[in-house]
Amino acid sequence: MRREIRISGSGGQGIIMAGYLLGKAASIYDNKISTQVQSYGPEARGGASKTEVIISDDNIYYPFVQMADIFVSLSQLGYNRYRREVKKDSVTLIDPIFVKPVKNGCLEIPATKIALDLGSKIVANIVMLGAMAEITKVVTIESLEESIKSTVNDRFLDINLQAVNKGREIGCAIIEEEVIEES
User: 12 vs 117, which has greater pLDDT?
Assistant: First the structure.
């Protein structure tokens, strides 16, 4: 198994933290091999940012994503910039508040709305991680929870754990909906 994941958004949305948590969940808690690289736009907040995570059962010799198996976008700028660099059978997740897709086939995860309902839009990245993990099975929800517990400050732990589980619930609903449509 080898999965190349690109997560894009704007500075301040926690894109880099999402990549870090995902890579840590894979390597430490799911016993896979992972790499994580990141890049920022010129602004500290509001500029484009992305993180790339590769998760594999085998050695990884090149840490950059060529064509994503999984693409997540929390901003229109990130979506526009990277939407063409995905495999034909890729999974694309977007936050419909910020991203209007050019083509059909994107899975809409209302991450920001859910985060606001939880009390802080800052956990939209974690909602998205929970949904992605449930839909793609690239890491387990349990490994994401452990990654969060070992990384996030205790003051923010509860809301982050709620966020990952709300994301998981959305992922389950999407999977169930697709199964119903196929039958």
Answer: 117
